[in-house]
């Protein structure tokens, strides 16, 4: 079983839609949860960094962590064509980082 | 730009070649990381350095040899690679290697490596 599961998509939505991206995990030792955005031919860029269960909001982005279900989500409100990218979830336990495979998102104008 | 630069951006090498990848960070960080990103696979953490000392080596084959001469520079020396080593190699840095908020990783743009 993979440490982190993420649907690779691709996901295609119209501009202005609410986007929901999700990851599940199996290791209850994970304590820090991250979402990265990766544009083509670029390195990953950190979007959200959360600890423990709950919600964290930053502009149009909301990250949710449900440790009891081992499930994390990233919501993008009022999606824009510039949000078209691959979104990676990541988790940390000690000095080890585990990433999902990434979900490819296209926002159509 | 994130403050982490990588050179070269693209590299094509034969299986008998020796080459090196370079990473430099201008963020004043003390921890640096090498990752491998292959198509349709998760990022794989390869090596971690904290204050120039290697703290993690995730069972990486010896044909990959890291070097960290100081906290700002990280190298990945490559020799006798295999075609399956073709991937995007990403460097990242963080304040140090402890867990905690405000200690997130900043990634460079990567080196696209092709092994023929």
Features:
heterodimer; A: 109 residues; mainly beta; six-stranded mixed sheet; five-stranded antiparallel sheet; 0% helix; B: 116 residues; seven-stranded mixed sheet; four-stranded antiparallel sheet
Protein architecture, described:
Chain A is an all-beta fold and 109 residues long. Chain A is built from no helices and eleven strands. In chain A, the strands form two sheets. In chain A, strands 2, 4, 5, 9, 10 and 11 form a six-stranded mixed sheet that branches. Chain A has a five-stranded antiparallel sheet with strand order 1-3-8-7-6, with no helix packed on it. In chain A, a hairpin with a 6-residue loop joins strand 4 (32-38) and strand 5 (45-51). Chain A is globular and about 40 Å long. The mean pLDDT of chain A is 93. Chain B has strands spanning 4-7, 10-13, 18-25, 31-37, 44-50, 53-57, 64-70, 73-79, 87-94, 106-107, 111-115. Chain B starts with a strand and ends with a strand. In chain B, 35% of the residues are buried. In chain B, strands 2, 4, 5, 6, 9, 10 and 11 form a seven-stranded mixed sheet that branches. In chain B, strands 1-3-8-7 form a four-stranded antiparallel sheet, with no helix packed on it. Chain B is built from no helices and eleven strands. In chain B, a hairpin with a 2-residue loop joins strand 7 (64-70) and strand 8. Chain B is mainly β.
Average pLDDT of chain A, to the nearest integer? 93
Class by SSE composition of chain B: mainly beta
Percentage of residues in DSSP E strands of chain A:
over 45%
Poorly predicted regions of chain A:
none
| Overall shape of chain A | globular
Describe the global form of chain B: globular
Q: Can you give the helix content of chain A as a percent range?
A: under 10%
């Amino acid at each position: 079983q993979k440490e982190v599961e993420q649907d690779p998509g691709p996901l295609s939505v119209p501009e202005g839609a609410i986007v929901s991206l999700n990851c599940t995990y199996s290791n209850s030792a994970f304590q820090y949860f991250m979402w990265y955005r990766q544009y083509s031919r670029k390195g990953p860029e950190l979007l959200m960094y959360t600890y423990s269960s709950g919600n964290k909001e930053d502009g149009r982005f909301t990250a949710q962590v449900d440790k009891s279900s081992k499930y994390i989500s990233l919501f993008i409100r009022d999606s824009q064509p510039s949000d078209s990218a691959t979104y990676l979830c990541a988790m940390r336990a000690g000095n080890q980082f585990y990433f999902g495979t990434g979900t490819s998102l296209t926002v159509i104008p | 730009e994130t403050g982490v630069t990588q050179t070269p951006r693209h590299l094509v090498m034969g299986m008998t070649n020796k080459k090196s990848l370079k990473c430099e960070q201008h963020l004043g960080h003390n921890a640096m990381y090498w990752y491998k990103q292959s198509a349709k696979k998760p990022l794989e953490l390869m090596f971690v350095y904290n204050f120039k000392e290697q703290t993690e080596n995730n069972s990486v084959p010896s044909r990959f040899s890291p070097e960290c001469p100081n906290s700002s520079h990280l190298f990945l020396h490559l020799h006798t690679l295999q075609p399956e080593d073709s991937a995007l190699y990403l460097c990242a840095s963080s304040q140090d290697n402890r867990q905690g908020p405000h200690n997130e990783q900043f990634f460079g743009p990567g080196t696209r490596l092709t092994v023929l």
